[in-house]
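FORM 12-B: Structure-to-Sequence Request
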């Protein structure tokens, strides 16, 4: 029996609930899948499936075998990838997911250069603001923004993620500018509806030169508008509808063109005690595949270019965190 072929057939049948669908996926005859399963059941001495008119359902033994078989096949594929990559350039299909606004602004615009540099890599982009389970979805790499929770995935920091308070000249001419974080409570705030609550945590970092200690202030928000999209918040802020808290990667052009003005320049938003960042997230493996590594290295180099989106200040911040490439444990 071709044991690895039989295991692949079993895993496909378990996922799809059908021998015929499994056969189509792995490009063999349905009778071949049926034979593989029969041989596996004979070898193991157990039934792997309960058959019914509704399809296939794993038995208890089938569930146990599947749990361990997934790891076996993953390790085999990884071994093949590592060995075959020694004498060839990065290649294959790379599936990447990312937030919509960040992806449009800072990933898609550089894709032509990436694909010219790596002509043997095909790219499948999934843009969504929903956190995707990358293992279940067959995703090779995710770009995520913020502070990372704990899990079994791996992550590499691409760049710092900073959010600043800003408003349009028209709004400030009509309503004035807040002098302190506490003054924000009297202003119309453009609120991000995906945030945990209607509060901004603003942090003033320590400054040894003038003896300033780090401080933080939590501000309760007021305002009639809530939006679940960064680009919409940016448009509303430029239209003078209120004060917004926006990432520097989204507001760079608006600040340079004078469409927005930064407020409270000594303060930044930081949702947790851990500094947020832009991360490349991928499944835990002994060796990262060459196509994933190529993508991460390419975009990391772009984001750390001086003045890329946050002028010289961003480049300095990135230099401080240049050693943050060590893997982190984060949420699936």
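FORM 12-B RESPONSE
SEQUENCE OUT:
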């Amino acid at each position: 029996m071709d044991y690895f072929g039989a295991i692949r057939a079993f895993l496909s049948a378990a996922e799809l609930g059908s021998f015929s669908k499994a056969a189509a996926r792995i490009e063999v005859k349905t009778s071949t899948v049926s034979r593989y399963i029969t041989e596996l059941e004979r070898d193991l001495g157990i039934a792997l499936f309960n058959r019914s008119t509704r399809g296939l359902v794993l038995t208890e033994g089938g569930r146990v075998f599947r749990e361990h078989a997934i790891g076996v096949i993953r390790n085999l594929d990884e071994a093949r990838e590592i060995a075959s990559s020694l004498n060839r350039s990065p290649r294959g299909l790379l599936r990447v997911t990312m937030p919509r606004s960040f992806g449009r602004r800072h990933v898609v615009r550089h894709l032509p250069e990436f694909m010219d540099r790596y002509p043997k890599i095909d790219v499948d982009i999934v843009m969504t603001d929903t956190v995707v389970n990358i293992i279940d979805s067959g995703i090779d790499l995710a770009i995520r923004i913020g502070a990372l929770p704990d899990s079994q995935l791996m992550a590499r920091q691409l760049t710092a993620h900073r959010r600043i308070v800003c408003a349009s000249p028209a709004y400030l001419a009509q309503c004035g500018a807040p002098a302190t974080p506490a003054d924000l409570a009297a202003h119309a705030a453009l609120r991000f509806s995906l945030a945990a609550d209607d509060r901004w945590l603003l942090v003033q970092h320590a400054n040894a030169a003038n003896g300033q200690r780090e401080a933080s202030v939590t501000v309760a928000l007021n305002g009639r508008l809530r939006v679940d999209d960064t680009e919409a918040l940016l448009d509303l802020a430029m239209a003078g509808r209120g004060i917004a808290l926006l990432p520097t990667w989204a507001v760079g052009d608006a600040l340079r063109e004078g469409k927005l003005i930064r407020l409270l320049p000594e303060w930044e938003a930081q949702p947790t005690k851990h500094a947020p960042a832009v991360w490349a997230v991928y499944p835990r493996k002994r060796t990262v595949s060459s196509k994933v590594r190529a993508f991460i290295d390419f975009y990391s180099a772009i984001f750390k270019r001086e003045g890329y989106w946050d002028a010289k200040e961003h480049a300095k911040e990135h230099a401080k965190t240049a050693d943050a490439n060590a893997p982190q444990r984060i949420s699936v």
